[in-house]
Specification:
229 residues, alpha/beta
Length: 229
């Protein structure tokens, strides 16, 4: 099995004044290419911190994270920014769409930041919107979309650079059950049809059950790791 992303004995402690708060206590995790992994656990268990380490949004105090066999934990700021933009797609509970931009323009943002021309970016953005069933909403602004539609536009934005891996942090947390199911079904479709590697942090058992593998955390450690047969 080819390991696309690896966490190697990752530890992280946050400080509040003189008080230490260990978030990760030496976590190791391998993610295979094309795998759909759900990370679950109670609030404060370290699951979002682990996701931030996997995505290069934060650096561990010790240990390392490897993406495509390259260490990402100790890159300089510019190299880390470029790697996140080009090789990692992020989806959060809050969609962080720019309210003044149409859906297609929101999806084009990562490409435009990377120097891609509008002429080249536009067809790729349309294809990304089509992949999440939103091609008919490309001219709508975020305020004209439902919560589920806005999240699908955010997923299209995360996919448009053809990332090696998609990382999602509570992506259904702000959605009702109907829109939540829509997003879950979309994730399964991306894994099945596009062989997209996906790691999702969730407290929702329904979301977790859609994954191929469930990793349970408690007190900054992985306490259970199971794959569906």
């Amino acid at each position: 099995m080819e390991h696309l992303l690896r966490a190697l004995n990752v530890a992280k402690t946050y400080k509040t004044g003189i008080v230490d708060h260990p978030a990760l206590r030496g976590v190791s995790l391998d993610i295979a290419k094309g795998e759909f992994v759900a990370i679950v656990g109670p609030s404060g268990c370290g699951k979002s911190t682990l996701l931030h380490m996997l995505g290069g949004l934060d650096s561990p105090d010790s240990g390392d994270v490897l993406l495509e066999q390259q260490s990402i934990s100790h890159l300089d700021d510019l190299s880390q920014t470029l790697l996140r933009r080009r090789r990692i797609g992020f989806v959060f509970q809050k969609v962080h769409l720019l309210p003044m931009l149409k859906a297609i323009d929101n999806v084009m943002v990562p490409m435009r930041l990377d120097g891609v021309s509008i002429e080249e970016a536009r067809p790729k953005a349309i294809a990304a919107l089509a992949s999440v069933g939103m091609e008919n909403k490309q001219q709508n602004r975020p305020g004209e979309l439902s919560g589920g539609e806005a999240q699908r536009v955010a997923i299209a934005r995360a996919l448009v650079m053809s990332p090696a891996i998609l990382l999602a942090d509570e992506p259904t947390g702000a959605l009702d059950s109907t829109n939540s199911k829509m997003v879950i079904d979309l994730f399964r479709q991306l894994v099945r049809d596009l062989h997209q590697t996906l790691v999702i942090v969730t407290h929702d058992n329904t979301v977790a059950e859609a994954a191929d593998r469930i990793v349970k955390m408690r007190d900054g450690l992985i306490v259970h790791d199971s794959r569906k047969s």
